[in-house]
Automatic annotation (TrEMBL):
InterPro entries attached to this UniProt entry: P-loop_NTPase, PDDEXK-like_dom_sf, PDDEXK_AddAB-type, Restrct_endonuc-II-like
Domain PD-(D/E)XK endonuclease-like, residue spans: 637-936
GO terms classed as biological process: DNA repair
Top-level taxonomic group: Bacteria
Organism of provenance: Denitrobacterium detoxificans
The name this protein goes by in its record: PD-(D/E)XK nuclease superfamily protein
GO MF term (any one): exonuclease activity
Coiled coil (UniProt feature): none
Keywords tagged on the record: ATP-binding, DNA damage, DNA repair, Exonuclease, Helicase, Hydrolase, Nuclease, Nucleotide-binding
Pfam families registered for this protein in UniProt: PDDEXK_1 (PF12705)
Length: 947
């Protein structure tokens, strides 16, 4: 079914003709004995027409209203006693219907919104019969029909259904609707049906509203010609009442708008119609106020973008939640209405993220405890379902912030009122308050601010649509901004809803171009003296921007000829006659543009020193020099820190001093390594107490059984450890599987253990050193623990360091390439923690260290160094011959293991001296060093980051 109702789209009626035609329609309706009903596009226009008709002396007996209000009134008089449903009721009744319907896939927020639009527009036409519907469309149709039944149970009705029923009532004949300035595309199918049935008589649509007489001649001519210039019509003569502003790119846009405002605010009121009024106000108002120009803005923002809306959404996501959402908790704590001090917000976020076992209830109590005293009860009240009480507490807390605050926080009373109403309505439909709040996320909240308390501001920032609603010729200057095709695109609506509505024969004339033309023309008609059109010529990537189609159409009125562009300025793409009235601003003045021209003073600062710790900060290179009872002036490090510094000084700085690693308690290789260390330590301690000093073929079965017991105990013990202690705690099924997969690998490793160092026996596990008394190594003090020390009967020792992954980097030296001679001077190996431990073991335990091994129990591999003059390969089951060759001492000019330990220390000492001097260059020892480095933007990086 197509609409029979047609509204002319020409905009060339003069106000006098417009007024006369309407008055004529009123008179003829009265003459026919029908009551004239003037249907206006908005409440503002309704007031304007009421005044006009009163002035003309023909307001008596005429109803001046809007179409929705008239439908409601008609339904009250001629309906079936049911009430027309409001938007909030629709939202929750529809959700209830959607919950009750069985969907193949749970409806998303988007689907729920589509259902609401469908009901609002097409309730009387929704059917599952006589049309072919897809599976999804069938769900939509069935839900809309179920929704209608729910409404009827409560004696409610959709306005669209009321329109369709009223269209069949004889009582309609008593009225003569006269539609004023309402475009056809703004009417739903049901409204068209009603107007058609009522024989809606006069349809007027013009940009020239009452008040046009006061306008500058150039503007009057322009509005009369806009969109309807004929080939033979003469071009409008540019006189400066229409001006152009062309920023070359986005950084010049706001400054140019600001300059234009300043220029015209001296002459009277200025309306700035732009895409983001709040943003433009925030950027320009301070400088304008300094120049003595008062400003205000009115805009709408989504509920979820307001601080109070965000806060309520966060509460809805956290209270009674089954999962822990730490990001939501962080967002919550940083919201102005959470009442959490900023330092506490960051500290508590850190402690929560460092605990992967944290439960939703702990998160909530943590947040509640950190809140200001006056907000302490809110979370508890919400948990108990005392929503109104919780909102009362929030409102009391928010009142002073709203009253004296700045920015969007000032609209919190409106946000809270909307949320409260939604929660009540949702509750009446049996839905939770959380669902009510979530449904509001995209709801539009009016927001406004003004720099002048009492009087109307000189400059008002509003949207183009709001500008179009203002009375004609009501501002001295109108500046319409952002007139680019990408900001105001003209797109045909082709979505799932329009397809479904077409299937039901419910057609809404879709003419987005006509809507845009009308809005733009109405906005232009608000100007009394000057109209300024602004559009950026390039985007942020210096690509040329296309003008909005309506901008081009207005400019067409000034072209000497519509058939030729001979008089067109190529750069600005406007007729030469408009060029004298065009302002252009480039992007070269970066600072002035960025500060909107204010305070553009030049400043110089020293470039930061990179790769070096400043002399004044060198006492902080390492902290905690006090170890045990003694204080030392030496740097306090650990073997792993030294190794990190040797791999790349800047990586050490980033990881150890800036601590760039993640805040979250992780389930990574590091925690897995700690867990394996702990399991092996406990295994050997228990094994030696209860079975034998060493795993052999005879004790292998017992060892495997014991490993299972120890593994399970150690895994359980992880959950008793505090967060931040490197615990290995799986929380998902896949993590649990990853942990459990370690046990068979450790059990298999025991067989390898029977071949490893058969003449040696494990004697020390996780042996600690340097705590009570500083141990000096290479000019610094170190402390830590050695994973394992195996000793033979002659007091010779192997230092063992467990690793859960090994590579060639753990070899003492690398095989020289084929054509290269063997090196003659010893250089430090890439990995050398175990050589540091060797010195500790030698000096503190008095043992003769003959080897240092890195052992991977998961793959049964070893790398490292050993004294090949003392130890035979029967002790060392290397996987490859090259691993054994590259572990041998003597090597180069190092003849004994003692010499190896001493030479390594000397070389490390040279590097520690550099660290003490503050040297922290990015200088990787090899590309492996960069692999897990957290410095994302390092120019020296050799390997892609694989964190
Ligand atoms: S990316 Fe490589 S070079 Fe850069 S700091 Fe990290 S380890 Fe050093």
């Amino acid at each position: 079914m197509n609409s029979m109702y047609t509204i002319p789209t020409h905009l060339n009626d003069t106000p006098a003709q417009h007024r006369a035609a309407i008055i004529q329609s009123i008179r003829s309706a009265k003459a026919q004995g029908r009551r004239p009903v003037l249907l206006c596009a908005s409440y503002a226009q309704q007031l304007s027409w009421q005044r006009t008709l009163a002035r003309e002396g023909c307001g008596f007996g005429v109803a001046v209203t809007t179409l929705p209000a008239w439908v409601e009134e008609l339904w009250m008089l001629h309906g079936d006693g049911s009430a027309i449903v409001g938007p909030l009721t629709r939202t929750f009744a529809m959700r209830q219907a959607a919950h009750e319907h069985v969907w193949s896939k749970n409806p998303t927020e988007g689907t729920l919104k589509l259902l609401e639009r469908c009901a609002a527009e097409a309730m009387p036409y929704a059917t599952t019969e006589g049309c072919v519907l897809s599976a999804e469309e069938l769900h939509v149709a069935q839900t809309v029909i179920a929704y209608r039944a729910l409404l009827r149970e409560r004696n409610l009705i959709e306005a669209s259904e009321a329109c369709a029923l009223l269209a069949q009532r004889d009582a309609l004949g008593a009225y003569q609707p006269i539609v004023v300035d309402v475009a056809e595309e703004d009417l739903t199918h049901a409204q068209c049906q009603l107007l058609e049935a009522a024989g809606a008589a006069a349809q007027f649509h013009t940009a020239a509203q009452p008040g046009n007489e006061d306008r500058a001649d150039e503007l009057r001519s322009l509005l009369a010609m806009l969109y309807c210039r004929q080939k033979d019509d003469a071009a409008i003569a540019a006189q400066g009442h229409v001006r152009m502003a062309f920023p070359m790119g986005p950084t010049a846009e706001l400054p140019l708008i600001g300059i234009t405002i300043e220029q015209f605010a001296q002459q009277g009121t200025v309306i700035v119609a732009c895409k983001s009024p709040a943003q433009a106000f925030d950027a320009l108002a301070p400088a304008l106020v300094e120049s003595g120009i008062s400003c205000s803005f009115a805009d709408r923002m989504p509920f979820g973008a307001t601080p109070m809306g965000r806060h309520l959404l966060n509460l809805a996501g956290l209270v009674n939640a089954s999962d822990t959402d730490l990001l939501l908790a962080a967002d919550y704590a940083l919201n102005i209405f959470a009442g959490v001090n900023i330092v506490s917000a960051f500290r508590s976020d850190q402690s929560r993220r460092n605990n992967r076992l944290i439960q939703p209830t702990e998160v909530l109590s943590n947040l509640a405890n950190n809140a200001s005293e006056s907000l302490q009860g809110v979370i508890g009240l919400l948990e108990e379902g005392r929503i109104d009480d919780a909102f009362d507490v929030l409102a009391a807390y928010a009142a002073p912030i709203s009253a004296y605050g700045v920015g969007p926080a000032t609209n919190s009373p409106a946000v809270l009122a909307k949320a409260r109403e939604a929660c009540r309505e949702a509750s009446s439909w049996g839905l939770s308050w959380q669902e009510a709040i979530r449904s509001l996320e995209g709801a539009s909240i009016p927001t406004s601010r003004s720099t002048s308390e009492d009087t109307e501001a000189t400059v008002r920032f509003i949207s183009l649509e709001d500008c179009a609603q203002l009375p004609a010729a009501s501002a001295d200057t109108v500046i319409i901004c952002n007139l680019c095709a990408n900001v105001y695109p003209i797109k045909e609506p082709e979505d799932a809803l329009s397809t479904l509505l077409r299937t039901w024969g419910c057609v809404r004339p879709a003419t987005p171009l006509a809507t845009m033309r009308r809005t733009y023309a109405l906005a232009c008609s608000v100007a009394r003296e000057t109209l300024v059109l602004e559009r950026a010529l390039h985007d942020g990537q210096t690509e040329e921007l296309q003008p909005a189609s309506v901008f081009e159409e207005l400019v067409d009125c000034y072209r000497a000829s519509l058939a030729s562009d001979v008089d067109t300025n190529k750069k600005l793409r406007i007729p030469q006659s408009l060029v004298p009235f065009a302002a252009v601003r480039g992007e070269e003045a970066l600072v002035a543009n960025a500060t909107n021209g204010a305070l553009a003073t030049e400043r110089e600062a020293d470039a930061p020193v990179i790769g070096e710790i400043d002399a004044s900060a060198r006492s902080f290179i390492t902290l905690g020099q006090n170890r045990g009872q003694e204080t030392s002036d030496l740097l306090a490090l650990s073997p792993s820190q030294i190794e990190s510094y040797l791999e790349c000084p800047y990586q050490w700085f980033a990881k150890r001093r800036l601590k760039l690693d993640t805040l979250e308690e992780s389930f990574s290789k590091v925690e897995r390594g700690n867990f394996i260390h702990s399991t092996l330590e406990h295994f050997y301690a228990r094994f030696q107490q209860t079975i034998a000093p060493k795993v052999t073929e005879e004790t292998l079965e017992d060892a495997r059984n014991l490993m299972q017991v120890v593994f399970e105990e150690t895994a359980q013990h992880q959950f008793e450890k505090s967060p931040g202690k490197g615990r290995y705690v799986p929380i998902t099924e896949s993590e649990r599987r990853a942990r459990d997969a370690i046990l068979p690998m450790l059990q298999d490793y025991l067989e390898y253990e029977t071949m490893l160092l058969p003449s040696f026996t494990p004697q020390y596990y996780e042996w600690r050193y340097g705590d009570a008394e500083p141990f000096t190594y290479a000019g610094c003090t170190i402390c830590g623990s050695v994973d394992r020390i195996d000793v033979d009967e002659q007091g010779r020792a192997f230092v063992i360091d467990y690793k859960s992954s090994l590579s060639k980097a753990y070899r003492l030296h690398e095989k020289p390439a084929k054509d290269e001679p063997a090196p003659t001077t010893f250089v430090l190996p890439h990995k050398m923690q175990a050589l540091m431990y060797a010195k500790v073991v030698r000096d503190l335990l008095g043992l003769q260290v003959v080897g240092t091994l890195y052992l991977n129990p998961l793959t049964c591999e070893i790398q490292g160094a050993y004294d090949s003059r003392i130890i035979g390969l029967e002790e060392l089951p290397f996987k490859k011959g090259a691993d054994a060759t590259c572990a041998q001492v003597p090597w180069c000019d190092v003849c004994t293991f003692d010499e190896l330990i001493n030479r390594s220390e000397q070389l490390v000492a040279q590097r520690i001296e550099e660290l003490a001097q503050g040297v922290i260059h990015a200088q990787p020892i090899c590309k492996d060093a960069c692999k897990y480095c957290p410095v994302g933007n390092c120019t020296e990086r050799l390997e892609k980051r694989s964190i």
